[in-house]
Structures are given as C-alpha cells and as structure tokens.
Amino acid sequence: MRPFVYEQPTEISTAAAMASRFTRRDDQPTRANAQFIAGGTNLADYMKLGVAQPDRLLDLNRLADPGLRQIRVTDDGIRFGALVRMGEAADHPDVKRRYPVIADSLKLAASGQIRNMASLAGNILQRTRCEYFRETSWACNKRVPGSGCAAMEGFNRQHAVLGASDACIATYHGDFAQALMALDAIVHAEGARGARNIPFAKLHRQPGDTPHIETDLAADEIITAIEVPAIPWARRSLYLKIRDRESYAFALASAAVALDLDGDGVREARIALGGLATVPWRAGKAEEVLQGKPLDEHSATIAADAAFADAVPRQHNAFKTELGKRTLVRALLETRDMKV
Amino acid sequence: MDAAAPRPKDNQGEPLPRVDGRLKVTGQAHYPADLPTGNIAYGALATSSIAKGKVTKLHLDDARAVPGLLDIVTYGDMDKVEKPKFGNSGATSVGPLHDRIIFHDGQIIALAVAETFEAAEEAAQLIRAEYEEEKPTATFDSPGTATIPAAGKSPLFKEDVKAGDFDAAYAGAAVKIDQRYSTPTQHHNPIELFSTTAFWQGDQLVVHEPSQNVTGWKVELARQLKMDPGKVRIVSPFIGGAFGSKGPMTPRTAIVAVAAKRLGRPVRCVTSRMQAFGTQTYRAETRHRIQIGAGKDGRIAAFAHEGWEVTSRPDSYVVGGTSATGRMYDYGSILTHVSLVQADRNTPGYMRSPPETPYVYALENAMDEMAVALGMDPVEFRRINEPKTEPIGKKPFSSRSLIQCYDQAAEAFGWAKRDPKVGAMRDRDWLVGMGCATAIYPTAVAPCAARVRLTVDGDVRLQCGSHEIGTGVRTVAAQMASERLGVGIDKISVEMGDSSLPPAPVSGGSISTASVCSAVLKACDAVRAKLYAGATAEGGPLAGSHNDELDLADGKIVAKSGASAKVEDVIKTMQVGAIEEYAEFAPKGATPEALKKLYAGTPEFHGGEQDEDSVKYAFGAEFVEVRINRYTREIRVPRLVGAFAAGRIMNTRTARSQLMGGMIWGIGQALHEATEIDRRYARYVNRDLQDYLVPVNADIKDLQVILVPEIDHAVNPAGVKGLGELGNVGTAAAVASAVYHATGKRIRDLPIRIEQLLA
Ligand SMILES: Cc1cc2nc3c(=O)[nH]c(=O)nc-3n(C[C@H](O)[C@H](O)[C@H](O)COP(=O)(O)OP(=O)(O)OC[C@H]3O[C@@H](n4cnc5c(N)ncnc54)[C@H](O)[C@@H]3O)c2cc1C
Ligand code: SF4
C-alpha cells in the first residue's frame, strides 16, 4: 500500500477547495491525486489492492454540517444526508413504510458490519467488482485506459449484458442505486465552483470508449444529499435480488420495482435492474409495455422481453439475459401481490 | 444437553467444552502470526503474473527506493539452499527462487523485507518482472496437456483396483448407466491467512507458522537449509483453519528463514489471500466416467469408475478415490482406472477428504441415477447392494454401520413422506426436492508419541506434537488422560503444536484422534503401572493387591477389596514428586522402522484397505432437502440430516461440530465453491472471498447430526475412527439428487448453479 496524506476537513467548502487544489481540473474523481473517503469500505479496499492510488485522502466524516447525517422526511419526499450509513437508512421506519424498495435494497446488500460503516454516497459511487479490474496484473481499460479488457474474452460470468461497450463490460454492482433509479432520485453535489443537482439517472456513465470515466462528478464535487420525491404509491415497491447464496453476495440479477395499480391494471410502473448492466439501469421500455395493461405473468413476460431486447451476452454470462427476465417477472408479480 | 452437546449414547464420550474454547473466543489464543516476537521485520511476496515461461529481468530499483526497505530475497539468494521436495511435508518440488523458470501462475519471484508491513507490500508491488512468455496449458481440454496413468505415481495409490469380469457383466446387465461427472478446482481458503515468522537464536532456527505437520516440516526445512533437524523448531500452537492446506510446507518457509538470517532479525511474512491461490496447494479439478450395470432386481453386477485429475508438470499429485468407490457396494465386478492430466499449474495438494470428495460425489450421483433407472427408492437400492465383505479383496469390514445410518437419518428426515415422482413436491413458488447419499472415509492410524506427567498435586501435563486445527484434539486427548488417570479435566494441561514436543504424525487423513489418543492411552497406562507398583510395593498403602484388581478414580487407587489409597499419598510414599512417562505408540502391523519414520517426519499410515485382517472405514448417510424457485431457479437448502457411525466417539460435542462443519462444507461444494481459471492464461481469476463463495450462516438453516453408536476394537487401541473428513463426503451428491427430484434435471458438473437450471 502506498503512503498517502490523510486530512479531515470540517467544512464542505474546505473539503471541495482542498480537492480542487490537489487535483487537475479534468481529473476523474477515481483517478485524482486527492480523493474523498467516507466509510472506506470500497476505497480502502482498492487502495490496498493498488487499484486506487490517491496521494491524499480527504475524510468526509468530520464535516460539521449536520444535514450530512440526517434522514429528513417531508411532504416533498425524503432526503438522505450523504454520510448516513446504509444500516441506518435500511432500518428507518419511514423508509421501510414509504419506500420498501429502498429499505430492501440496503438490507439485502453486503453484511451488517459493512452496512454500519458504509455511507449512502459512497454506496452509490462504489466501483465495479470485475475480477480483472481488482487485480492489477490484468489488462483493464477502466483501470489503465487503453490497456485492453481481459474480461471481454475471459471469465465473465458476473459481467454486464446491458449497456456494455467494446471497451468494458463491467457490471455496476450496487443495489441501493437501483431503487434510486426507479424512484427518480436527485443527487445534491457541492464543488469548488458551487452546488448543483444531478438527476440520479445522469450520475453514472456508460463505459463507451472511456470506461475510466464512471460518473458525471468532477474530482472536487462532494455528494451532500440524495433526495427521493414523494411517491405515495411507492409503498407498493420491492427489491428482488437473486444471487448464488442466500446472503452476503452481489446480485447476479436484481430488480427494483414500484407499481401504481388500479385494480390489476398498471397506472404506472417503475423498474430498474441491477447486476446486469454497466450502470444503474432503468428499464423504460418495460415500463411502457406495462402502462395501462393488466399485470399478469403474460404481460410481465412481454415487459421483461422488452427490457432485454438489446442485451448482449458474452461467453459466461449468457444466462443473465434469461435470469434477468425471470427476475423481473417474479419481481413484478410479487410487487403486484404485496399487501399495502 | 443441547443440540451442540448431544447426549452420549453407547461408546460415546461426554460433550465436554473445548479446553481451549475460552481462549479462542476471547481472542487470547495466539495463532502463529500473533506470537509476540521483538524487533520484527516484515516480508511481502512478489509473484509471477504469467503461468509459463522464464523471468528474463527483474526491476528492483523502484522497490529498493521505498523508505524502510531492508532487503529483497530473489534469484541467486537461495542457491546454497536445497530445493524443496514434493511429498507429505513438501507442497511442491519447485524451488521458485532457484531458477528463473515459471511453472505456474502466482509463483514466488521475490520477497521484499521492510521495517513495516505496508512498506514491504508497497515494495513487493513495485517489483516488476520481464518474461519470456510461453503459451500455458490451463486444464482439461487445453492444448498441451499430457495424460499419464496415476497408478504407482504416489505411494498412496499403487494400483487401479479391479475384480471379476466387468465387460461381460456390464454387457449382460439388464439396466445400465454410463455417465460423466466433474468437480471444479477448489482452494481451502482458511480464514487464518498463511504466514511464516522466522528467527535465529544462534545456530538454532525457530519458525512460527500454522502447520498440520510440525515434525515433518522440521525435518524437511532442516534438509533444505542443510541443518541438523534438532536445531530447527516449528511452532504452531493454534491453527485458524487448515483443511489440508497447512499439511505440506511451501517454499516460502525457507525463503523467510533465509531472509531472517541475512538480516539477523525476525522476519514475518503473511501471504495475501490472493497470493495464497498460487503459492499454496488446492484441490484440482477432476472428471469421472461411471458405468453401472444391474439386474432388474437392483443387484449391481458391474461397476466401472474412470477418473482424471489435473496435476502440475513437475509433480504427480494423485488422489485416486477409486480405492474407496471400488469398495463401497457389493458390485459383482469392478474396473477402475485413474489418469493424471498435467498442466501448467501449481501442484495440487490435500484438501479435506482429498480422494473421497470428488470420487464419491461421482459415484453417489451415479447411484441415484441408477436408482431412477431401476425405478427404485435410492435408500432401498443401497440396502440391496450392501456388501458382506469388501468387494475387492473379500476381507471383512472391521465394522460397517451404513444401513443403521441410513435408517436413523431417513427416520429423522422424514424420508417416508417424500413423493418419489420428479417435480411432485411444491411449496407455493418453490420446487421441493429430497435426496440422499452415502459418506465414507477410510479409518487410518499412525504411530505417535506422547509424554504424560502426573504430579503429587494431581496435576497432569500432557505433551504431544499434534496440531489443534480446530477439531478439538487437545480436548479429546485431555479426556483420554482424565479417564485413564482418574483426574478431572481441569487438572490437565495439554501442550501441542511444537516440534520440540514428542512427535505426532501429520494431522491429516483424520488420524489425529485415533493416533494421539492411542499414544496418550499408552503413556497413561504406563503411569498407572508405576503408580500401582508404588501402591502395591512392600510398605505401600495397597501392598498385597494385584494390579489387575486396581482402578483409578477421583484421585484414588481403588482395590477390588474396597481398600483405597490417594494418588497423592502413593506418590509421596514413592518419594518421586511426580510420575512421568514417555510412550511411543505403533499401530498393529507397523513395520520395524515405524517409529524411526515417525521421528523422520514420514509416518506410516495403517488401516483403511491396507491391513491384512480387515478393511476399516467410517460411514454415514446424508439427506438433503432443496428448494428451487420456479422463476429464478436459485437453490436453497433448508434441511440437512446426517447420521454417522465412527467407532468410539471421544466427545459428542467436538464430533458433532466436525460433522456439521463437514456437511456445511459439502453444501459449499454442491452449490458455491469453485476457483475459476482463465483458460487463455492458465491463471486463477476469482482469487478472493468476494468471488470464491462459501456458504454463509443464512445458507444453513436446519442441520441435524446423528451419532450412531458403533464399537470397533480392531481399528486401534482407542477404538476411534476418524470423522473429521467424513461429513463432507456425499453431501454434494445428495444435493444433486435432490435437485433432480425437484426439477428433473440431472446436474453432473459441480457446483450446481442457477445457470444450469434455467434452460
Ligand atoms: C464484502 C463486501 C460486500 C458488499 N456487498 C454489497 C452488496 O451486496 N450490495 C451493494 O450495493 N454493495 C455492496 N458492497 C459495497 C458497499 O456497499 C460499498 O463498499 C459501500 O457502500 C461504500 O460506501 P463507503 O462509505 O464505505 O465508501 P468509500 O469506500 O468511502 O468511498 C467509495 C467511493 O465514493 C467516493 N465518495 C464517498 N463519499 C463521497 C461523497 N460524499 N461525495 C463524493 N464522493 C464520495 C469515494 O471517493 C470513493 O471513490 C459490499 C462491500 C463489501 C466490502
Ligand atoms: S470489463 Fe471493464 S473493468 Fe473489467 S477488465 Fe474489462 S475494462 Fe476492466
């Protein structure tokens, strides 16, 4: 592990200014000399493995702004401070009641210990677990731009079938992000040049030719909060996560679903898919298919087919297209049958 | 009594808590890398990123520039040291720093030593190698493999067993199957990482390293370093999981010892989890072809088992499980053959029930297929083919309680409620399946020495160079001494895990309890004899009594007449302060050199199918219920029942714990564990616990272990059959049969994953 300078700024503006001072303007946050650290469950891991190599860590945990640690419920929705821990949000009674899909996505992630450390902002910014990315002796365009992609023709069982490119097929593994995607969340960020709001759907970038560019954030921008709009019918929502073992594993496929039902008919459906795509994935086509239709196994299957119409399987992940469809069908039917 | 402490039945010992349990759960047990050692320097390994070729150049300048770097041990620095030897005490014959040839992915190319762990790691990461790379051969079906017969390649696998005329019997059989099975590469992944700490005290070398074989390592390390074995000491008081991985010593140990010598201070090297995949041993992938032919009545007439196992180029590691599968049932005729397939890989090694896990998996999956082909209940099918004598040499089994195991497990499981029709059982969206399989493990025993000292205060000090790998061997050894010397368990202290103690065999092959307890029994009996002599001597408190009329209990020697004398008083009369005995146990049939070989770290194993009088095996029956979601096909295992018979059970708590752990491991083999190989580069891909999955708590719901009483005096003086490697044999086949029952899909390649059930 390389030596690094460790700083604990207390003001958001100072933290952003420090980041700005030690990084170049066009640096990606994940490649910058100065990087933010929250729970450290992702970044410290990658530093030990030599994947992330910041010279300077700016620890966000001493930031004074109390809003960073609060969950605020209002008529407009719910606002999560960036430093709220996964475990706390998962257990919050209003979250559980009003947005079960959020509570589920957090509860089914990682382990109790990690959920107590990991922050919500860190969670949505977690980096891929691609085996070839994690180990520095392999060729990886995301880690070293232009070096190639060892996963493309390698062992790619966990890799993405949606949103991949010729340069990178790494999956975005987070769970929480799928719930935020489905619920049209907004991310608040503050950088040296001011604050802005980013629609959650715009936060992550598909790999394209530049898989090392992972988000829309600049290296000096700190996520301060995540806001989820009030959606009364989101009580009928859930997160279904399919994995090789019962707990403590990333999704092979997952679905975040929220339904506004009129009897059996679908007024509005919100669907995001996890473990299958390079970024948090909104299944807009599947939503359209369902709109105004009765929800049954048949219509759910048509919606699932639509969601995967553009799927591109590779050698070892070919099953994920079928698994993804079935996950979505099951999630839709289970959401329909929820007692709310 | 609770589930963790089953009430002892006939021939079963009390479920005493582990004597070292408290130390372990309060963090006071010192594992080798925790043992305090002053002025320590830290080592980190640099390993190859190719699997085949040559290191043409090493760039060390960046590493040397790391502040705090002390030394780099690499090519040229090990020239005065002998290359390692492959065998029981040596994981490989590759001396990674002896020459620049790369035999496998992750081969050691240097050891960086620094003032801090972090600096050592940084320096190791900065060591860059240039290679002359060749195209490596990864595994089965890769271009460049060489296939050779396994028989004779290992002292443990002398021949391919056969009996009768298989071809004729198979040709004439009314019902037959001919199927292929496979098991994946697996790594032990014990939670305690692999580590070596070495320091020199004058010309004496001390090594702290988790080891299942301190005596063997002492001798082998002394050979490599050209030293007197008496000047090498291996210390391993606790081991945080081993499963065979800490049985053979790897080349790292000598490299760290050399580094410590060069620096003149202790050096500690803890291998990263990723590096362990290439620098330690593992279970290699296997393939099987099984043919079974039977009459309509279900009696098997023909059985053939052909196995293929991957090994490294330089070393022929063989498991050869046909020795067990060939003796499982009353087959009529038997034909077996095992081949080794050489590839550019690190040398495989022992992993919990090395032969039985893959081979019995294949056999038992095939047995289930055969039962289906016959339209017969799988338990009945096994009952029909229960042998009277072992089918190859026609020797009797020293004891065999397989049918009792099946009956008791079936009853507890509720097998009778199973609807045999495939896909017939459901619980809402979940398909329910039930399956079963046989577990078998050879009962072996090896020579072992022990020292027992009984003081005038009634304290017992027991010393034996065996190893606490988590099985509870300290506890059962103390129980044996407690029973023989009539003292409470709290008066007994047990020292193990140090090569300066009386030698014990490698803790492998499930021989420890049998071997250690037999040696402790012998030492205790010698102490008793001395005590009795003292008591009955002229002027002694029990003068005139005969030894065979005496017994020891509660600190007293009691004569048949009712007269008794306190042990304390007897020792006082003897004026010796304490009685100490050193015993060397050699099993029945041991050769005249048996004890010498024990001291040389190459102990003889007896038992299994090797003895003249009988074949010796422990058996079990396992039942599994699976649930498979009808949409997404994930497989869950809500229920497991295993019944096992293994001779005398020393302690029902530790026995249950081993068998339970084994069955959980079996679930991992069935559904989770696999090391993935990138076939283009012959490199392991999922080298950490993120992607190398093992069961977690949530995967194990209702698990029941039944200890079936069994008495067997033939196996060893302690009457004990090893059971540490019994529980995980058969589990995967039981899961496969349950999956078939639920879905109608026969999965023959492990692990069973969602993708195999989606189509
Ligand atoms: C064993 C294991 C299992 C896991 N399983 C799951 C799982 O099943 N599902 C799942 O979703 N996740 C899982 N995770 C991932 C885990 O959820 C993330 O590691 C965690 O949420 C990251 O949060 P953190 O606060 O620790 O982030 P850090 O590691 O501190 O940071 C992560 C990244 O976010 C950046 N960052 C952090 N906070 C901010 C901020 N406020 N503004 C700007 N940038 C910021 C950092 O610079 C860094 O790049 C698992 C992790 C582990 C180790
Ligand atoms: S899939 Fe992406 S992250 Fe993985 S090796 Fe290829 S480029 Fe790197």
How does this structure look, described?
In chain A, 29% of the residues lie in helices and 20% in strands. Chain A is α+β, with helices and mostly antiparallel strands. Chain A has a domain of 109 residues: Uridine Diphospho-n-acetylenolpyruvylglucosamine Reductase, domain 3 (2-Layer Sandwich). A five-stranded antiparallel beta sheet of chain A has the order 4-5-8-6-7. A four-stranded antiparallel beta sheet of chain A has the order 9-10-11-12, sandwiched between helices. In chain A, strands 1-3-2 form a three-stranded parallel beta sheet, with helices on one face. In chain A, helix 11 runs antiparallel to helix 12. Chain B is α+β, with helices and mostly antiparallel strands and 759 residues long. Among the domains of chain B are: 271 residues, Aldehyde Oxidoreductase, domain 4 (2-Layer Sandwich), CATH 3.30.365; 159 residues, Aldehyde Oxidoreductase, domain 4, CATH 3.30.365. In chain B, the strands form eight sheets. In chain B, strands 3-5-1-13-10-11-12 form a seven-stranded mixed beta sheet, sandwiched between helices. In chain B, strand 28 and strand 29 form a beta hairpin. The longest helix of chain B is centred in the C-terminal third of the chain and has 25 residues. Chain B is globular and about 85 Å long. Chain B starts with 20 loop residues before the first helix and ends with a helix. The model of chain B has no long low-confidence stretch (mean pLDDT 97). The chains are: A alpha+beta (340), B alpha+beta (759). The interface between A and B is large, with 35 and 36 residues. Iron/sulfur cluster binds next to helix 8 of chain A.
